[in-house]
Amino acid sequence: MSENTPRDRRVSVARWFLAVSYGLGAPYTAFLEYGQQMLSQRFAIPPELVYVTSALQFACAWAVFVRPLASLAAVALTATTLGAIVLHLKIGAPMTAWAAVFYTAIQIWFWLASRNRSARPG
Question: Which residue among 17, 76, 94, 111 has the highest number of C-beta atoms inside a 10 angstrom radius?
């Protein structure tokens, strides 16, 4: 995978950002949920949903490195962060949703960039 253009470098930085943040954050979230059931109580959702979401995010963190799966991984990550935004709004904490809005913007950009990139020959 050669990164010759500034756009390719930006895609690579976004890929690593998503992989590291979700690769570390998803297991940590599942660990906190297992120990304290923090998120399921705060958002009034079943703990199993937290575990499934964490597993999906962790899998997508590594799927962003597989070129044919990168776009799909970005879409799945975007779906989970859109769900997080909805849950934050549901509990009346819109200010805490800004991190998810930030991630959503990065994931949508990455999805578009990786989709265009995979369409190019080579």
Answer: 111
